[in-house]
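G., the chain you wanted modeled:
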Amino acid sequence: MNTNHTPHFTSHELAEQINDHIEELAKATDAARVSAEMTRYLETCARFHQYSWHNIWLILIQCPHATQVAGFRKWRSMNRFVSKGEKGIPILAPILIKEEQPDGEDRQFLRGFKVVYVFDISQTDGEPLPEPPNWKSPEKNEVLAERLIDFAREKGITVTEKVLAGETQGVSKVGVIEVDPTAGTKTLIHEIAHEMIHKDSNALLERSIKELEAEAVAFVVGKHFGLEATGSPNYIALHGLDATTIMAHLEGIRNTATLIIQAV
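Predicted structure as tokens:
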């Protein structure tokens, strides 16, 4: 890609191109959602119990490196087995009592809690769990990145390179963007989009929608400048979103993408 020779587009032509890119992303996201790889991964994720904040705190206090935890029987149902000598992580499980009501319906009441034990995946052996479908787009373009950083600076946003924990590629912190050295240029676009769209947005806006908007903008801008942005459909699908949701946010995505493209 050569950003020094980007074709000139009229406003109408640019809007049409952006619409085409968004529609392409929407179709690819729906295809990703029903792929065998994604289906197997999401089905496995659904089998893990969603723990309360209190139990999450108990788990992390006792096993800071924990990533996926389940009880002894649950692990067995996934063809994994707790390794000999491993000690369980104690958490609290509710004791629910079913009582018949005057209207004839049975209702459950909380009678207290009991200690149960869970185990992290690192304490087990057996059949490997499916890896998350690839959602990263590592392609780098130094010229485009420099122009994006200049654009961010004009908007009062500081961009720094920093090694980030785990699989995190970028972080937006209201006026500051941190990008992992391994991240591609699309990640920078994604975080700039967060700053532009969500800096002053409603705090109650769902995280999945924020990620959708930022990733869709990154996809559109990346495609315009020749980046492959191959991981975007999987990234959006992993947040449980589909083509209908993408198209419902078309106008906001298009406006932000247009602003970045024209400025860069």
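The CA atoms of residues 7 and 161 lie 30 Å apart.

Shout if anything looks off.
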